[in-house]
Design brief:
By secondary structure, the chain is mainly α. It is 49% helix and 0% strand. The protein has one domain (100-406).
């Protein structure tokens, strides 16, 4: 009897244990996996090769096209640029602050970015294939991986004009006789080492901003090369300023389509009560005050600073242009929805959407809208080939601009004004 009870108890225990095992197997398992964030992945394969990382043991020596081989060793000016690279000089301590510019510094110090996220991929609700992204859409791990060695005649001229490089031995002081904003061959030879130093001195800032905003680091680097040749001042007039050559129309897009930026910037210029109305509800005069102040902010020209550039303004302007690209991504998404009644992720790939964004950035929303409207008439998916073929005549420079950005040439074209925009920007959906 006792033995029978023991057998029964043991059997019951065994049954309970078996049921517990089965129940445990049925429970969902929490699997921890780190998904790649937009702009943070380092692709294992590139459709276009990354620029080779320079050796760490010695300063990188870039090869120059045969027509512009430097004839002298690195100048003292170039060495000084190298020593000062990536150093932030606080202008509040380095020189007296112009009362008219005080709001700029307050804004820079107080700016609060949105929480790091997926950037434009999140806006478009699309998951990129990070393994197969082309080089121009990547954000590598280290600043050296966006190292460049492009012959920049405009940058060379600006370094010469601001006494960062001595080209007195050259004809016309190293500047072209036909264009005082461009160096001649001799001027580039004298300035070449400094040009290499300068175009890479902001790599860390670009990389950090890319990781924070999700805007690809290599894309920003390529845009800066094409737009301003990394000179954060003005081209010839204040109509275009900063690394990305911001215009009034470009500032309009940023303030209209990037609410977080607008909410923080507007009270620096207008009274807070006015800002609460929203950018599109401001008067024309108020909008012009904001866009003018924003263009002025990204102009880092500083006659009293070393090399003629305020480094603090220059570094912060990288953020402004990253935020501007985010705004353009928002506008592109809305244009597609307006013209196709479909979400961007249902019409185009991640790469195509960025190509559309470059058109929008360079030529304006009117160009892109007309091209997308024409393409959508055939009920086609929106890819770059079709949209580019349907760009209207007044946007003829947009396709060439896009190609110059995604394929950084060995010799960059000199800065040129953007095309005229005959149509206003699209209004954000309520």
């Amino acid at each position: 009897m006792v033995i029978s009870k023991r057998i029964t108890i043991i059997g019951a225990i065994g049954l309970l244990m078996g049921m517990a095992v089965i129940w445990n197997l049925r429970q969902p398992r929490a699997v921890q996996a780190e998904l790649p964030l937009a702009g943070l992945a380092t692709p294992r394969m590139h459709l276009t090769p990354l620029v080779q990382t320079p050796p760490a043991a010695e300063p990188a020596r870039a090869e120059v096209p045969s027509a512009v081989q430097p004839a002298v060793a690195q100048s003292d000016a170039a060495q000084a640029l190298g020593r000062d690279a990536l150093k932030i000089v606080n202008p509040l301590q380095a020189r007296p602050v112009d009362p008219a510019n005080e709001y700029m510094y307050k804004f820079m110090q107080a700016y609060q970015p949105v929480a790091p996220g997926g950037g434009c991929a999140e806006i478009w609700e699309i998951v990129p294939d990070y393994v197969r992204l082309p080089n121009w859409l990547t954000t590598p791990d280290r600043p050296e991986q966006i190292y460049s060695k492009v012959s920049l005649y405009f940058l060379a001229a600006m370094l010469i004009r601001n006494n960062a490089v001595d080209a007195a031995e050259c004809e016309n002081g190293g500047l072209s006789l036909n264009n005082q904003w461009v160096a001649n061959v001799c001027g580039l030879n004298k300035a070449y080492a400094a040009v290499i130093e300068w175009q890479n001195r902001f790599n860390t800032v670009i990389l950090n901003m890319a990781k924070e905003t999700g805007v690809p680091a290599q894309l920003m680097k390529n845009i800066f090369s094409r737009e301003s040749q990394f000179w954060p001042g003005i081209f010839t007039t204040l109509e275009e300023a900063g690394f990305g050559q911001l215009t009034v129309n470009g500032a309009d897009v940023l303030l209209m389509w990037n609410k977080n930026f607008y909410d923080q910037f507007c009270p620096q210029v207008l009274i807070p009560e006015a800002c609460k109305k929203g950018y599109t509800n401001l008067s024309i005069n108020e909008q012009q005050m904001l866009t003018g102040a924003l263009v002025r902010m990204v102009n880092a020209t500083c006659p009293t600073c070393p090399n003629g550039v305020d480094p603090y303004l220059a570094e912060f302007s990288v953020r402004v242009f990253a935020e501007n690209l985010i705004a353009n991504c928002n506008q592109v998404g809305q244009i597609i929805q307006n013209e196709t009644q479909r979400k961007p992720n249902r019409t185009s790939t991640y790469q195509d959407l960025w190509l559309f964004t470059l058109v929008n950035y360079h030529a304006g929303s009117g160009c892109l809208r007309d091209a997308i409207r024409e393409t959508a008439k055939g009920n086609y998916d929106l890819n770059w080939e079709l949209v580019a073929a349907n760009l209207p005549g007044y946007c003829s420079s947009a396709k060439a601009y896009v190609e110059e950005v995604i394929y950084m040439p060995e010799v960059a074209p000199n800065p040129t004004p953007p095309p005229q925009q005959p149509t206003p920007t699209a209004t954000p959906a309520p």
